[in-house]
Amino acid sequence: MIFKQGYSIEELRNKKTLIILGVESSCDETSAAVVVNGIDVKSNVIATQIEIHKRFGGVVPEIASRNHTLAMRPVVEEALAQANVTLDDIDAYAVTYGAGLVGALLVGVSFTKALAYAEQKPLIAVNHIQGHIAANYIAHNDLTPPYLCLVVSGGHTALVIVKDYTDLEIIGETTDDACGEAFDKVARVLGLPYPGGPHIERLAKSGRVTIDLPRAFKNDKAHYNFSYSGLKTAVINYVHNAEMRGDEINKANVAASFQAAAVGVLADAAERAVKDRGADKIVVAGGVSSNTYLRETFEKRFKKVYFPPVKLCTDNAAMIAAAAYFKLKSGADPAPLTLNAEPALKLYQ
Ligand code: KG4
Ligand code: ZN
What percentage of residues in the chain have a pLDDT greater than 70? Predict the structure, then answer.
């Protein structure tokens, strides 16, 4: 296939300066970014819908899709303007095609396919979780596969061996809720707004670990799995029982106790995996990796740990453009214009 600038895909792959426009719309953030060579972020515009979904206590998929359609064009235009480039300067278009909310994903996928078609430039399909992982490449230029990675987001909690940029093996994962999901549910029980993670973190700062909460698989050395439903239920029961008795609960202590248990099991499993696999470092990715307590815990327990910059931990398009760059460089072909949204895409696909 020959693209508009007269390049073949091989020539594009070997181009010294590759400018990618990334698009992300898998949940409640509409984002577009211009990234040069996978690491140099020229712009990263994020239009968040948090205020819209807050009053419902979580993301309402239909409302998310509608707002993506309203925000998409201005966000892309702003990303191009901030990067001081035009569509002519872009070498390839990258978009999150899964996992996520199908209607939300479709807005980004359709928009980006239309751009690639109109501009006759390659379309790169990016797995959202591989995007979260790629946020680390932006900050740590020395980071190259293979390495051990802990993915902790609102939808995933897994220990993964990143063998190559697009070749991932899951060695442990949650058997029920994701860690971020547990943060959000516990926040709701404590009357904190959506998304709960940052609110739990803030509240926990003024609390102490006073409640003994379950830490699933803590003593199970056989695997690196996680389970958050028992921890979540224990917090819900603790709060409800206190309410039934008419006892005043110390919400800060509940938040601190929950956070310590939620992060503790992540660090325990990661420590086992690092030891068993002889890994020299652990890389953390996903929305929960912005949590300061998690960062401090991991810094204390591991010799070498990599996190994405805080502003690239939650959903953004810079990480999508970065992932697309490394995917293209490692030999993957562009996606066909028949690309569809894959709401249940696995993190290794
Ligand atoms: O990675 P992400 O932006 O979306 C998914 O791909 O799922 O993660 C969002 C999740 C939410 O559950 C949110 O509560 C959690 O990340 N989160 C946090 C923090 N910031 C975001 N959890 C704990 N502490 C935080 N500071
Ligand atoms: Zn995400």
Answer: 99
